[in-house]
Design brief:
The chain is of the alpha/beta class and 475 residues long. It has helices at 2-15, 20-39, 45-54, 65-68, 71-80, 104-108, 111-121, 136-151, 155-168, 187-193, 199-210, 213-229, 252-268, 284-288, 290-303, 329-335, 354-363, 372-379, 388-393, 405-408, 412-423, 427-439, 445-474; strands at residues 59-64, 84-86, 92-93, 101-102, 173-180, 239-247, 272-278, 310-313, 341-344, 367-370, 398-400. The chain has 2 domains: 73-121, no CATH class; 155-455, TIM Barrel (Alpha-Beta Barrel). Bound molecules: zinc ion (ZN). Zinc ion (ZN) is lined by residues 62, 64, 278, 312, 343, 403.
């Protein structure tokens, strides 16, 4: 009886021509209530998965292009390139070696061999197979070596696949960490850099690089690759932007030359919206040179002040490196390098002045890119040990991202499910996280405004759908 009266009242209100906003607000209220029931005392994971697959998710701001491609795709490219897979070592070979080397298609058709390849080229089955395996951090980063030979081939195809996958799970924007910028090895510079760098050294090396024709050609080739691989990819459903990157475990001259190339690239083409530094942070060279890398960023940031930086920083855990190494990486990325976003930010609780750093991040709108699956696998940091709990408490902006969905064999919806099921969130927060993934993007302001406006419409439709589903349940 009650229900009938309520529905009559709703019908009457609608026919009386109540403003659209009042109707939309009621859909939002129903969605809030529905979501609260899903996270409840025991999260309803299947329903949360459906909810987040359907929920418009703005963008993915921590997204490695090659790490996002699934191994099955790489196997297809093995054949396209006329390469083969060594069926013992599971490596890709350009020329058939002495042993058995088989096509990607034969791997796909051989269940036992495919299982072995997936265990080496991704994290699949890490916790449920009995084979000898490396520690999880090595397993994760080693995958890049296995699929490396084809990772930079067929990029136009790869970007299209990622676009289709994004649209399928209601993601409208990817800011992908695309390719390594060109580099030049310089033994003299490396020798000098062993006792630190200064502005004069960096200026001299920059001038030398500016005269290097191969370096210039490398930059032109990078730009051409961005333009041909991503040609025509943007439309009303999807927008793609790129970050150029530096590998932190290379030698100082290689790091600085890729960094200079990246700053130049980001200044030359508006589709390259930022620069990043990536690679395992806990290995010796990355740790030894960390402070020097931040100084290099500072130098280039002063010369290219408009270039935006999203830096992987503090992807470390207690026990992985000596404790001193955990005390300053996020701080230096912000204070020295001038990062606008921080990737991972896991070591915050160990840094020298965590509350001061978080205050600064809050006040200066420096967002953390939170990658829950990746942090769990590589660092063993999850649940209440994950510092997203601290960032939430201290009001530091953050976004939910995937890191390497092809390696982790996850997607962005899955990361939202993890967040919601672990951290007792509410609908208002996850909706805000979706908007924040556009607000904290490096998109140009007009693109940002356009995508946020489109997101308003998508959320209105999503909430209407949820409300309609709930109304059907009530009958
Ligand atoms: Zn990453």
């Amino acid at each position: 009886m009650h229900k009938k009266i309520a529905s009559l009242l709703v019908t009457a209100a609608l026919s009386a021509g109540l403003p659209q906003a009042a109707h939309a607000a009621s859909n939002e209220t129903i969605t809030k209530r529905y979501f609260a029931a899903l996270v409840g005392s025991e999260p309803r994971l299947a329903e949360l998965t459906m909810f987040f697959t359907l929920m418009p998710k703005g963008g993915d701001l921590h997204h490695h292009y090659s790490g996002a491609i699934y191994a099955e795709q790489f196997l297809e490219w093995v054949d396209k390139q006329n390469y083969c897979v060594d069926s013992t070592a599971l490596t890709i070979q350009a020329m058939p070696p002495a042993g058995a080397c088989v096509s990607g298609a034969s791997v796909m058709n051989n269940n036992a061999l495919l299982a072995q390849v997936l265990q080496r080229w991704s994290d699949k089955d890490f916790y449920n197979h009995g084979a000898l395996q490396s520690p999880p951090d090595r397993q994760f980063f080693d995958t890049f070596g296995y699929f490396g030979p084809v990772a930079s081939t067929n990029t136009a195809d790869g970007l299209q696949r990622l676009k289709q996958r994004a649209i399928q799970e209601n993601v409208s924007y990817l800011e992908t960490i695309f390719e390594l910028a060109p580099m030049v090895l310089n033994a003299d510079f490396d020798k000098q850099a062993a006792s630190g760098v200064n502005d004069a050294m960096l200026t001299a090396f920059s001038e030398q690089l500016d005269k290097n024709q191969d370096f210039k050609k490398g930059i032109d080739a990078y730009l051409a690759n961005v333009n041909t691989s991503g040609a025509g990819i943007d439309d009303d459903k999807f927008t793609l932007r790129y970050q150029s990157f530096v590998l932190r475990f290379l030698s100082p001259s290689q790091v600085f030359s890729t960094m200079l190339a990246s700053f130049k690239l980001a200044s030359m083409d508006s589709k390259i919206v930022g620069v990043n530094i990536v690679g395992q942070e806990s290995v010796n060279v990355s740790m030894r040179d960390y402070a020097m890398h931040m100084q290099m960023f500072k130098y280039l940031k002063a010369r290219y002040p408009k270039v935006k930086l999203a830096l992987h920083a503090g992807e470390l855990a207690l026990g992985l490196v000596p404790p001193e190494g955990l005390s300053f990486h996020i701080r230096d990325a912000i204070d020295v390098a001038g990062a606008q976003r921080i990737g991972h930010g896991i070591d915050i609780a160990h840094e020298t002045n965590p509350i001061g750093i978080m205050k600064k991040m809050r006040e200066q709108n420096i967002a953390v890119e939170v990658n829950l699956s990746s942090n769990d696998f590589i660092l063993g940091i999850k649940d209440q040990a994950h510092p997203v709990t601290l960032y939430r408490k201290y009001g530091v902006p953050f976004v939910i991202s995937t890191d390497d969905a092809g390696v982790s064999r996850n997607n962005l919806s899955g990361e939202y499910v993890l967040f919601a099921s672990r951290y007792k969130t509410n609908y208002a927060e996850v909706k805000k996280l979706s908007y924040d993934s556009l607000r904290y993007s490096f998109l140009a302001q007009d693109d940002k405004d356009r995508l946020i406006k489109a997101l308003d419409g998508k959320f209105a439709r999503f909430e209407a759908d949820i409300a309609a589903g709930e109304a059907r349940k009530g009958k």
